Amino acid sequence: LAGCADDSSCASNPTLTIGGERPAMVQIPSNYDINTRYPLVMVLHGRGVDGWIQSTYLGLFDRVDSHQFVLVYPDGLSIDGRKQWRFTPTCCDTPEEEAADISDVSYLTGLIEEAAATYSIDTSRIGLIGHSSGGFMSFTMACEASHLVTSMVNLAGSTFVDLDQCKPASERVSVLTIHGDLDDTVLFDGVEGAYLSAPAAAERFAMLAGCDTNSPMARPDFDLVGNIDGAETSITTWPGCLQGTEVEFWKMNGGPHIPGPWVEAGLDALVEWLLDHPRS
User: Fold this and answer.
1) Considering only CA atoms, which of 8, 5, 24 is closest in space to residue 16?
2) Quick count: other Cβ atoms within 10 Å of Cβ 45?
3) Is 92:99 a contact under the CB 8 Å cutoff?
4) What is the per-residue pLDDT across 66-85, written as a single tens digit (0 to 9) for each?
5) What is the pTM of this model?
Protein backbone atom coordinates (compact mmCIF):
# COMPACT_ATOMS: atom_id res chain seq x y z
CA LEU A 1 0.00 0.00 0.00
CA ALA A 2 1.68 3.17 -1.21
CA GLY A 3 0.81 6.47 0.42
CA CYS A 4 1.68 10.14 0.46
CA ALA A 5 4.35 9.44 3.10
CA ASP A 6 6.25 7.44 0.50
CA ASP A 7 6.71 10.32 -1.94
CA SER A 8 6.63 13.20 0.58
CA SER A 9 3.36 14.55 -0.84
CA CYS A 10 1.36 14.64 2.42
CA ALA A 11 -0.27 17.99 3.18
CA SER A 12 0.37 19.52 6.61
CA ASN A 13 -3.30 20.58 6.91
CA PRO A 14 -5.19 17.71 5.27
CA THR A 15 -8.95 17.41 4.87
CA LEU A 16 -10.76 15.63 7.70
CA THR A 17 -13.36 14.07 5.43
CA ILE A 18 -12.69 11.25 2.97
CA GLY A 19 -14.90 8.84 1.04
CA GLY A 20 -16.41 11.06 -1.65
CA GLU A 21 -20.17 10.56 -2.01
CA ARG A 22 -20.21 8.32 1.08
CA PRO A 23 -18.10 10.44 3.42
CA ALA A 24 -16.24 9.29 6.51
CA MET A 25 -14.89 11.61 9.17
CA VAL A 26 -11.27 11.61 10.34
CA GLN A 27 -9.48 12.84 13.46
CA ILE A 28 -5.72 13.39 13.45
CA PRO A 29 -3.40 14.22 16.37
CA SER A 30 -3.38 17.90 17.34
CA ASN A 31 0.40 17.88 16.79
CA TYR A 32 0.13 16.09 13.42
CA ASP A 33 3.48 16.14 11.63
CA ILE A 34 3.95 14.97 8.05
CA ASN A 35 7.42 13.71 9.01
CA THR A 36 5.87 11.16 11.40
CA ARG A 37 4.13 7.99 10.22
CA TYR A 38 0.99 7.31 12.25
CA PRO A 39 -0.92 4.07 12.74
CA LEU A 40 -4.34 4.10 11.10
CA VAL A 41 -7.31 3.01 13.23
CA MET A 42 -10.77 2.55 11.70
CA VAL A 43 -13.75 2.06 14.03
CA LEU A 44 -16.79 0.14 12.75
CA HIS A 45 -19.91 0.85 14.77
CA GLY A 46 -22.64 -1.45 15.99
CA ARG A 47 -26.10 -1.61 14.47
CA GLY A 48 -28.23 1.43 15.16
CA VAL A 49 -25.46 3.87 16.09
CA ASP A 50 -22.80 5.62 14.01
CA GLY A 51 -19.06 6.12 13.89
CA TRP A 52 -19.08 9.17 16.16
CA ILE A 53 -21.13 7.44 18.87
CA GLN A 54 -18.98 4.30 18.69
CA SER A 55 -15.76 6.30 18.90
CA THR A 56 -17.09 8.18 21.92
CA TYR A 57 -18.21 4.96 23.62
CA LEU A 58 -14.74 3.44 23.21
CA GLY A 59 -12.91 6.61 24.25
CA LEU A 60 -11.06 6.81 20.94
CA PHE A 61 -11.23 10.57 20.39
CA ASP A 62 -9.30 11.20 23.63
CA ARG A 63 -6.67 8.65 22.65
CA VAL A 64 -5.86 10.06 19.21
CA ASP A 65 -3.48 12.47 20.93
CA SER A 66 -2.32 10.31 23.85
CA HIS A 67 -1.59 7.29 21.63
CA GLN A 68 -0.78 9.15 18.40
CA PHE A 69 -2.85 7.60 15.62
CA VAL A 70 -5.15 8.68 12.79
CA LEU A 71 -8.78 7.73 13.42
CA VAL A 72 -11.30 7.11 10.65
CA TYR A 73 -14.92 6.65 11.74
CA PRO A 74 -17.27 5.81 8.85
CA ASP A 75 -20.98 4.99 8.94
CA GLY A 76 -22.74 1.90 7.67
CA LEU A 77 -25.76 2.25 5.40
CA SER A 78 -29.23 2.65 6.84
CA ILE A 79 -31.37 -0.49 6.66
CA ASP A 80 -34.88 -0.23 8.10
CA GLY A 81 -33.82 3.06 9.65
CA ARG A 82 -30.75 1.65 11.45
CA LYS A 83 -27.17 2.00 10.27
CA GLN A 84 -25.25 -1.26 10.00
CA TRP A 85 -22.56 -3.03 7.99
CA ARG A 86 -23.01 -5.43 5.09
CA PHE A 87 -20.55 -8.12 6.11
CA THR A 88 -22.16 -10.79 3.91
CA PRO A 89 -24.57 -10.40 0.96
CA THR A 90 -27.38 -11.82 3.13
CA CYS A 91 -26.60 -10.10 6.43
CA CYS A 92 -29.36 -7.54 6.33
CA ASP A 93 -32.54 -9.13 4.93
CA THR A 94 -31.81 -7.33 1.69
CA PRO A 95 -32.99 -8.71 -1.68
CA GLU A 96 -30.12 -10.67 -3.21
CA GLU A 97 -30.06 -8.61 -6.39
CA GLU A 98 -29.77 -5.38 -4.35
CA ALA A 99 -27.21 -6.70 -1.86
CA ALA A 100 -24.96 -7.89 -4.68
CA ASP A 101 -24.51 -4.28 -5.81
CA ILE A 102 -23.21 -3.10 -2.43
CA SER A 103 -19.89 -4.17 -0.97
CA ASP A 104 -18.81 -2.66 2.31
CA VAL A 105 -15.49 -4.48 1.89
CA SER A 106 -14.88 -2.43 -1.24
CA TYR A 107 -15.99 0.77 0.49
CA LEU A 108 -13.79 0.25 3.55
CA THR A 109 -10.83 -0.87 1.46
CA GLY A 110 -11.20 2.32 -0.54
CA LEU A 111 -11.21 4.38 2.66
CA ILE A 112 -7.97 2.75 3.83
CA GLU A 113 -6.33 3.45 0.48
CA GLU A 114 -7.57 7.06 0.48
CA ALA A 115 -6.42 7.57 4.07
CA ALA A 116 -2.92 6.37 3.15
CA ALA A 117 -2.91 8.76 0.19
CA THR A 118 -4.06 11.68 2.38
CA TYR A 119 -2.32 11.26 5.75
CA SER A 120 1.16 10.20 6.80
CA ILE A 121 0.33 6.57 7.62
CA ASP A 122 2.47 3.70 8.88
CA THR A 123 1.04 1.06 6.57
CA SER A 124 2.43 -1.76 8.72
CA ARG A 125 -0.11 -0.72 11.38
CA ILE A 126 -3.62 -0.55 9.96
CA GLY A 127 -6.11 -1.65 12.60
CA LEU A 128 -9.87 -2.10 12.86
CA ILE A 129 -12.05 -1.92 15.98
CA GLY A 130 -15.57 -3.26 15.45
CA HIS A 131 -18.52 -3.68 17.81
CA SER A 132 -21.39 -6.11 17.11
CA SER A 133 -22.26 -5.57 13.42
CA GLY A 134 -18.89 -3.81 13.16
CA GLY A 135 -17.22 -6.85 14.74
CA PHE A 136 -18.70 -9.10 12.06
CA MET A 137 -17.50 -6.59 9.45
CA SER A 138 -14.00 -6.52 10.96
CA PHE A 139 -13.73 -10.31 10.69
CA THR A 140 -14.86 -10.11 7.05
CA MET A 141 -12.22 -7.46 6.37
CA ALA A 142 -9.57 -9.67 8.01
CA CYS A 143 -10.48 -12.29 5.42
CA GLU A 144 -11.06 -10.23 2.29
CA ALA A 145 -8.74 -7.26 2.88
CA SER A 146 -5.92 -8.96 4.77
CA HIS A 147 -3.42 -7.42 2.34
CA LEU A 148 -4.22 -4.07 4.02
CA VAL A 149 -5.50 -4.86 7.53
CA THR A 150 -2.73 -5.82 9.95
CA SER A 151 -4.67 -6.09 13.24
CA MET A 152 -8.25 -5.99 14.48
CA VAL A 153 -10.28 -5.92 17.67
CA ASN A 154 -13.71 -7.54 17.65
CA LEU A 155 -16.10 -6.61 20.46
CA ALA A 156 -19.24 -8.75 20.65
CA GLY A 157 -19.25 -9.82 17.02
CA SER A 158 -18.56 -13.11 15.27
CA THR A 159 -17.83 -14.63 11.89
CA PHE A 160 -18.84 -17.18 9.27
CA VAL A 161 -19.42 -20.77 10.28
CA ASP A 162 -18.07 -21.88 6.90
CA LEU A 163 -14.29 -21.55 6.82
CA ASP A 164 -14.35 -21.49 3.01
CA GLN A 165 -15.86 -18.00 3.18
CA CYS A 166 -12.51 -16.76 4.54
CA LYS A 167 -10.44 -18.24 1.71
CA PRO A 168 -9.61 -14.82 0.21
CA ALA A 169 -7.27 -14.16 3.16
CA SER A 170 -3.77 -13.72 1.74
CA GLU A 171 -1.94 -12.40 4.81
CA ARG A 172 -2.04 -13.24 8.51
CA VAL A 173 -3.81 -10.73 10.76
CA SER A 174 -3.42 -10.22 14.52
CA VAL A 175 -6.84 -10.59 16.13
CA LEU A 176 -8.21 -9.72 19.56
CA THR A 177 -11.74 -10.97 20.30
CA ILE A 178 -13.62 -9.56 23.32
CA HIS A 179 -16.99 -11.03 24.28
CA GLY A 180 -19.20 -11.12 27.37
CA ASP A 181 -20.64 -14.47 28.34
CA LEU A 182 -24.00 -12.82 29.17
CA ASP A 183 -24.37 -11.24 25.71
CA ASP A 184 -28.02 -11.74 24.71
CA THR A 185 -27.71 -10.05 21.28
CA VAL A 186 -24.76 -11.79 19.63
CA LEU A 187 -24.75 -14.95 21.68
CA PHE A 188 -21.48 -15.99 23.31
CA ASP A 189 -22.18 -19.61 22.34
CA GLY A 190 -22.98 -18.70 18.73
CA VAL A 191 -25.93 -19.85 16.62
CA GLU A 192 -25.69 -23.12 14.73
CA GLY A 193 -25.45 -22.50 11.02
CA ALA A 194 -25.33 -18.71 11.45
CA TYR A 195 -22.17 -17.66 13.32
CA LEU A 196 -19.44 -19.12 15.51
CA SER A 197 -19.24 -19.01 19.28
CA ALA A 198 -16.84 -16.43 20.71
CA PRO A 199 -14.16 -19.01 21.64
CA ALA A 200 -14.48 -20.71 18.24
CA ALA A 201 -14.14 -17.40 16.37
CA ALA A 202 -10.93 -16.62 18.24
CA GLU A 203 -9.56 -20.11 17.64
CA ARG A 204 -10.46 -19.85 13.94
CA PHE A 205 -8.22 -16.82 13.50
CA ALA A 206 -5.51 -18.36 15.67
CA MET A 207 -5.48 -21.21 13.18
CA LEU A 208 -5.36 -18.79 10.24
CA ALA A 209 -2.42 -17.00 11.90
CA GLY A 210 -0.53 -20.29 12.14
CA CYS A 211 -0.67 -20.40 15.95
CA ASP A 212 -0.47 -23.64 17.90
CA THR A 213 -4.18 -24.11 18.60
CA ASN A 214 -3.46 -27.27 20.59
CA SER A 215 -1.67 -25.31 23.31
CA PRO A 216 -3.86 -22.42 24.52
CA MET A 217 -2.28 -20.36 27.30
CA ALA A 218 -3.95 -18.34 30.06
CA ARG A 219 -2.71 -14.89 31.03
CA PRO A 220 -3.59 -13.04 34.26
CA ASP A 221 -7.16 -11.80 34.56
CA PHE A 222 -7.68 -8.05 34.53
CA ASP A 223 -10.35 -5.41 35.11
CA LEU A 224 -11.93 -4.10 31.90
CA VAL A 225 -15.51 -3.24 32.90
CA GLY A 226 -16.08 -0.89 35.82
CA ASN A 227 -19.49 -2.12 37.00
CA ILE A 228 -18.45 -5.77 37.33
CA ASP A 229 -16.58 -6.53 40.54
CA GLY A 230 -12.98 -7.61 40.42
CA ALA A 231 -10.81 -8.66 37.49
CA GLU A 232 -13.67 -10.02 35.42
CA THR A 233 -11.85 -10.51 32.12
CA SER A 234 -9.91 -13.70 31.49
CA ILE A 235 -7.36 -13.92 28.67
CA THR A 236 -6.49 -16.83 26.40
CA THR A 237 -3.71 -16.69 23.83
CA TRP A 238 -2.01 -19.18 21.54
CA PRO A 239 1.77 -19.57 21.03
CA GLY A 240 3.75 -19.96 17.85
CA CYS A 241 1.83 -17.58 15.59
CA LEU A 242 3.60 -16.82 12.32
CA GLN A 243 4.95 -13.54 10.88
CA GLY A 244 4.87 -11.82 14.27
CA THR A 245 1.10 -12.08 14.59
CA GLU A 246 -0.79 -12.71 17.82
CA VAL A 247 -4.33 -13.83 18.59
CA GLU A 248 -6.03 -13.33 21.96
CA PHE A 249 -9.48 -13.97 23.40
CA TRP A 250 -10.73 -11.76 26.24
CA LYS A 251 -13.79 -13.28 27.96
CA MET A 252 -15.73 -10.78 30.06
CA ASN A 253 -17.24 -12.98 32.76
CA GLY A 254 -20.65 -11.49 33.47
CA GLY A 255 -20.28 -9.08 30.55
CA PRO A 256 -23.28 -7.98 28.41
CA HIS A 257 -23.50 -6.98 24.74
CA ILE A 258 -22.78 -3.32 25.50
CA PRO A 259 -20.39 -3.28 28.48
CA GLY A 260 -19.77 -0.15 30.47
CA PRO A 261 -18.58 1.94 32.05
CA TRP A 262 -15.14 0.93 30.89
CA VAL A 263 -12.07 1.04 33.09
CA GLU A 264 -9.85 3.68 31.51
CA ALA A 265 -6.74 1.50 31.80
CA GLY A 266 -8.69 -1.24 30.06
CA LEU A 267 -9.48 1.02 27.10
CA ASP A 268 -5.81 1.99 26.97
CA ALA A 269 -4.91 -1.72 26.85
CA LEU A 270 -7.38 -2.32 24.02
CA VAL A 271 -5.99 0.50 21.88
CA GLU A 272 -2.40 -0.41 22.70
CA TRP A 273 -3.04 -4.02 21.70
CA LEU A 274 -4.18 -2.82 18.28
CA LEU A 275 -1.22 -0.48 17.80
CA ASP A 276 1.39 -2.90 19.16
CA HIS A 277 0.82 -5.55 16.48
CA PRO A 278 2.37 -4.30 13.24
CA ARG A 279 2.87 -6.61 10.30
CA SER A 280 6.49 -7.69 10.21
Assistant:
1) 24
2) 28
3) yes
4) 999 999 999 999 888 899 99
5) 0.94
